[in-house]
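User: We ran a pulldown and think these components assemble together. Before we commit to crystallization trials, I'd like a predicted model of the whole complex to look at. Sequences follow.
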Amino acid sequence: GQQVMQIPQYQHVQEGEDFTTYCNSSTTLSNIQWYKQRPGGHPVFLIQLVKSGEVKKQKRLTFQFGEAKKNSSLHITATQTTDVGTYFCAGPVNAGNMLTFGGGTRLMVKP
Amino acid sequence: DGGITQSPKYLFRKEGQNVTLSCEQNLNHDAMYWYRQDPGQGLRLIYYSQIVNDFQKGDIAEGYSVSREKKESFPLTVTSAQKNPTAFYLCASSARGLLGYTFGSGTRLTVV
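Assistant: Here's a predicted model for the assembly, 223 residues in total across the polymer chains.
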């Protein structure tokens, strides 16, 4: 079964509202990565978190890695139409560097 | 500029035909990967290769084959044994110990 779960699957927000997507793994992860895929595009690497409880910020995006290193979240403050896309978390669930991706959260922003 | 090139961008195939998707990278990355993405879905690993002349099956390898004769190239063949090949295929690469995967722009395969 799927080992990396993301919720919600879809999220509609009004421009200016905040947005959060959550990622949970069935196993402890050495790191968690986040990617953004614009409609019709390909995934683009955003960030990697490694340490337990780590929090990183990129402008309006805040990434957090859980204390147990089994969950993570991405929070966007005051969404803009440019934030539209699908956000994926991914982690090396199995041995080796291969990433297992979550199902993604598709963000839609109404102007 | 360094990157990953996938070709073609769109591909149409008749049922029963094999088709090969190209993936070339000039990033000097050791590892390369093939993922399949279905509409509204996540990415599922088909095959991966961590060094030249070696590759491993991913979660959904049935009906697919790969080769890794050169570090820069990791072509994927979708065989007639693949029951439902219509999908978006993404190739990616990564460097040992470095952050993140770099993805190509993908190939959209449609079986007609």
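The longest strand of chain A covers residues 19-25. That may be worth checking against your pulldown data before setting up trials.

User: Thanks, that helps.
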